[in-house]
Each structure stands twice: as structure tokens, then as C-alpha cells.
Amino acid sequence: MTTADETAIAVLGWLASEPELLGRFLALTGTDPTGLRGAVGDPGFMAGLLDFVMDHEPTLMQFCEATGTKPETVARAHAALSGFRGDTGSA
Fold first, then answer.
1. Tens of pLDDT along the chain (91 residues)?
2. Name one Pfam family in it (predicted).
3. pTM here?
């Protein structure tokens, strides 16, 4: 069974093999390469990894193809780590 944290760690591992995307992720988050190891396990950072792939469908599909992960698995992990429950509530 894959947990949300495991999915986020898989995204990080995949990004490590994609220098251009990793650079974009680091630039968007303000994280430096040396800070990555210490950030793993931080709920906000883990959610940010999943935000990164979920916010750009081509990136999501690249990750899923490369790792054999279903997009639905990433979406569930994203929802779990970001706290999204799927209800819209009222404004």
C-alpha cells in the first residue's frame, strides 16, 4: 500500500533524475539542494512536492509514466497532504 508520504518521496526521487524540473521546483519553492534532505518529512514540503506535479499536467503525466504510478494515486496523496477534502463548502 502506498501512503501519501511515499508518493511524495517518489516524486522527489524522480525529480532528482530530472535536473531541469528539479531546478524549477527549487526556484519555485526557494529551497536549495542542500536543504532537500532536511525538508523530507516536513508536511508542508511534502505537500509542495505534490503541488508541483499536480499544478502542471504534463509534469504529472511524466512522473506517472516514469514511475508506473497512476495519476489517481498522486491526486489522493495530494489531497491527503494538502488537507483537501473535496467539499467546496460555502463562501
1. 359 999 999 999 999 999 999 999 999 988 888 888 888 878 889 999 999 999 999 999 999 999 999 999 999 999 999 886 554 444 4
2. DUF3572
3. 0.84
